[in-house]
Design brief:
7 strands, globular, single chain, binds the ligand C[C@H](C[C@H]1O[C@@H](n2cnc3c(N)ncnc32)[C@H](O)[C@@H]1O)NC(=O)c1cc(-c2ccc(F)cc2)cc(O)c1O, binds magnesium ion, 7-stranded mixed beta sheet
Length: 214
């Protein structure tokens, strides 16, 4: 049977990247997406903004929603201080299987906890399963209509503290209008929009950074 796009992306990483070198894995995926097949990774333009926010926050507890193939997982994990791990949630088992291999190829498997399942089910389990009190940094990149229910779930589960940073991909394309309205109107968040483009295209998109004020 025909391979899937994530499987072909993995092959491109194994062919063109250097094992244990996260930067080469990131470049190999970006090259694949620019010259072979578009794929819904956060990409290099928005990825640089992601890098700068992660570096600024220097988080000890990190959560990513929507692993896909692990591109942003590798971008984030390579910047974390020694001993810090990121938890990433992926609903689709086939995508999780590819992500696991891409993360391992980058040599970052010891910095990543990849959990298969849906954010709605897993967020309430964070404290008991992973000993998390609050998250310093959360990257939202999953189903766009889950951003709003999940940020409310973070609040209900007491997973945010004064200064927790939430960074959301695709707030313009495909778009997350209800989430944007919520974080921009709520007095409990300080929000800022970072304009960019949909990965590997000229279509407008951007990242929304929201700081929880407690
Ligand atoms: C949603 C996907 C990313 C992954 O998220 C997992 N997922 C989902 N819901 C959950 C959950 N509730 N819990 C855990 N994981 C979860 C899934 O299985 C995908 O692997 N991302 C996108 O759909 C996406 C789409 C586009 C896009 C833009 C323009 C177009 F013309 C077409 C597509 C761009 C992007 O930048 C994206 O990020
Ligand atoms: Mg995205």
């Amino acid at each position: 049977t025909r391979s899937t796009r994530p499987q072909r992306m993995l092959k491109a990483v194994q062919k063109n990247a250097t094992k244990g070198n996260p930067k080469s894995v990131i470049s190999a995926i970006d090259y694949f997406c620019k010259h072979s097949e578009w794929a819904m990774n956060v990409g290099d333009e928005k990825g640089s903004i992601l890098d700068s926010v992660v570096t600024e926050v220097n988080p000890s507890t990190v959560l990513e929603l929507g692993t896909y193939c692990g591109y942003s997982t590798v971008r984030i994990a390579r910047l974390l201080s020694p001993g810090t791990k990121l938890i990433t949630l992926e609903f689709n088992p086939a995508n999780a299987a590819v992500a696991k291999q891409i993360i391992a190829y980058a040599g970052l498997q010891d910095k990543v906890i990849l959990v298969e399942g849906s954010s709605g089910d897993l967020i309430p389990q964070m404290k008991e399963r992973f000993g998390i009190t609050t998250f310093d940094f959360i990257f939202l990149d999953h189903w766009k209509d889950r951003y709003l229910p999940d940020i409310k779930l973070f609040e209900e589960c007491g997973l945010l503290r004064k200064g927790s940073v939430l960074l959301a991909d695709n707030v313009i394309c495909p778009g997350t209008p209800e989430y944007l309205e919520y974080v921009r109107k709520s007095p409990r968040y300080e929000s800022k929009y970072f304009p960019a483009h949909l990965e590997y295209t000229k279509v407008e998109d951007g990242l929304e950074k929201s700081v929880f004020l407690g």
